[in-house]
């Protein structure tokens, strides 16, 4: 195996989307449809950034692509870029096989739309096949193990927006 310290992180943005009741949008990965209660089956909207793209612009683009709407406003930007490493079995396979993991800029956003605005069926190859509102405190338990530390951090750092 190659020295992973030489592999780059993929730049990424993530959205912690709060509704008016202080709950967050979580979505079930389409490639894990039987993972209803399993860690990792549910996650927050997130995605890669284009070269030179501003993170605040990218987060709205990702919302539009992944959940069909960008009807939201930014409440806060996490002050740090948060990194995670892929587990060994995914190195060279996930993220186009070129990255050791991701470096992520996270945003807390307030959803300004209606539930009917959330459309997972607009993308011909959707990343998600279901979504729901959840308590922020539930988030770490939904994460795959290699993302759990980031979700734990978000649950603390964005708790002021939660129900």
UniProtKB/TrEMBL annotation:
Domain (Nudix hydrolase): residue spans on this chain: 8-156
Motif position, Nudix box: 47-68
InterPro entries linked to this entry: NUDIX_hydrolase-like_dom_sf, NUDIX_hydrolase_CS, NUDIX_hydrolase_dom, RppH
GO MF, one annotated term: hydrolase activity
Cofactors demanded by this protein: Mg(2+); a divalent metal cation
Annotated EC: 3.6.1.-
Top EC class of this enzyme: hydrolase
Transmembrane segments: none
Keyword Zinc: no
Chain coiled-coil ranges: none
Source taxon at top rank: Bacteria
Keyword annotations: Hydrolase
SUPFAM superfamilies recorded: Nudix
Family membership: Belongs to the Nudix hydrolase family. RppH subfamily.
Function: Accelerates the degradation of transcripts by removing pyrophosphate from the 5'-end of triphosphorylated RNA, leading to a more labile monophosphorylated state that can stimulate subsequent ribonuclease cleavage.
HAMAP family: Nudix_RppH (MF_00298)
Protein name as it appears in the record: RNA pyrophosphohydrolase
